[in-house]
Write a structure and sequence with these properties.
Layout: H1 24-35, E1 45-48, H2 50-65, H3 68-80, H4 89-100, E2 103-106, E3 111-115, H5 122-141, H6 143-148, H7 153-178, H8 187-195, H9 204-208, H10 211-235, H11 238-245, H12 251-255, E4 277-284, H13 287-296, E5 309-319, E6 325-333, H14 336-353, E7 358-362, E8 366-371, E9 374-381, E10 384-391
Helix pairs in contact: 1-5, 1-7, 2-4, 5-7, 7-10, 8-10, 10-11
């Protein structure tokens, strides 16, 4: 399951150049030296007024709100209990982008933009180095091509984590080198960076954002940076090519870099067929998704249970007559014991995410009853757990 922020950066008007951009060629040369990648062409750069950026984002909101995929993604998040029912995905995503953005590299225009309200100093240089790292990677492998090659949602998030995590790692490695150190991220700094997010009084939108949305935004940067560091410690400079040529297959590999070399392929369990319904959305539910979901409802704080994930699939339907949503998802775990632990943990999620829930029948392998959106069924079979939520209530 992937949060799709369908807010495209469409265009940018010309604006005055900044002395900041006199550093571009030097930064690219340093990043080239660190990665071993050749600079194939100059990267045009431009200061973008914050007001112009805000207008572009809001134009994206208008388009996203008309988009069926965005509406289906929003409903999926609500059915899983990851966001409240009054949550507006497109507008909230736009508000987050406006608040968090400092710079961006446009993969279509092959151009770098820095917002005009970023103060001079280290923050500005880190932002510039991060986006130039994207530009350099794009020249080697093609970022859009790399992302579009993902086979499923969770694999897409893993590839996002490679892109953002590597750029984050390189920006701080560049800063370390400029300070006279080795061109890498010191372990202590890596831990500090992973724990420090853009939160607090200066970031009120992120502070009020539901946990899953907040972590969907930060995961590719924080966990992706730790993943890149782990592969770099093992392979050295070859790591920069390796993660593009042999992309991780799931967020499990990002969270547990030691599994990356094993290329443990996630399963894609099959869901039972449904009648009298229309498909709205379908995709994969990865370790990151289940970890965030369980933690949001007070389970699996250390991630131990989520790490036993082996595969997950979901489908969102609507009933043809009533238009009421129906969510099905099935997950596979490392063992029947791990599946049983998830079965119990997810039963707790159901009890907490709905204002009302009545259990009709409960046994060691099945729980059924009525929830906020209709009847539900939770069933375990071996190492697999199935949940069906939104079954029409029989009166």
């Amino acid at each position: 399951m992937r949060l799709v922020l369908a807010l495209l950066l469409l265009c940018a008007t010309a604006s005055a150049q900044s002395p900041l951009f006199s550093q571009v060629d030097g930064m690219l040369a340093s990043l080239s030296k660190i990665t071993g990648w050749k600079v194939k062409r100059k990267v045009p750069s431009q200061i973008l007024p914050r007001a112009e950026f805000a207008r572009m984002v809001q134009d994206g909101v208008a388009a996203a709100e008309r988009d069926k995929e965005t509406r289906a993604a929003e409903l999926t998040l609500k059915m899983f209990g990851l966001v409240p029912w009054d949550y507006k995905l497109a507008q909230e995503s736009a508000d987050l982008i406006e608040e968090q953005a400092a710079a961006f590299y446009d993969t279509r225009k092959k151009k770098l933009f820095v917002l005009d309200n970023i103060p001079d100093g280290p923050e500005q240089r880190v932002a510039l180095a991060h986006e130039l790292a994207h530009a350099l990677a794009d020249q080697q492998f093609g970022i859009e091509k790399y992302l579009n090659a993902a086979k499923d949602d969770d694999a897409f998030t893993a590839r996002e984590s490679v892109i953002e995590g590597q750029a984050s790692w390189l920006s701080w490695a560049y800063m370390a080198e400029q300070a006279g150190g080795r061109p890498e991220v010191p372990r202590q700094l890596l831990d500090e960076l992973a724990d420090v997010g853009a939160t607090g009084d200066n970031f009120p939108v992120l502070e009020r954002t539901p946990l899953y949305i907040r972590e969907s935004l930060t995961f590719p940067y924080t966990e992706g940076m730790k993943f890149q560091d782990a592969i770099y410690r093992k392979l050295g400079v070859a790591a920069f090519d390796q993660v593009f040529r042999d992309a991780p297959l799931s967020t499990q590999e990002i969270l547990h870099p030691e599994t990356y070399a094993d290329a443990l392929r996630p399963t894609h369990p099959v869901l039972p067929k449904q009648s009298s319904v229309r498909l709205l959305a379908e995709g994969d539910v990865g370790e990151f998704d289940f970890s965030a979901l369980l933690r949001q409802y007070g389970s699996d704080a250390d991630g131990r249970l989520s790490s036993e994930w082996r595969g997950g699939t979901y489908r969102l339907y609507e009933h043809k007559k009533t238009k009421a949503p129906l969510l099905l998802h099935v997950s596979e775990w490392s063992s029947p014991q791990a599946a049983q632990a998830f079965f119990q943990a997810y039963a707790g999620v159901l009890r907490h995410k709905w204002p009302r829930m009545a259990v009709r029948s409960e046994s060691g392998g099945e729980i059924s009853g009525t929830g906020e959106r209709g009847d539900f069924l939770l069933r375990i079979s071996g190492a697999s757990v199935l949940s069906v939520e939104g079954i029409p209530t029989v009166k």
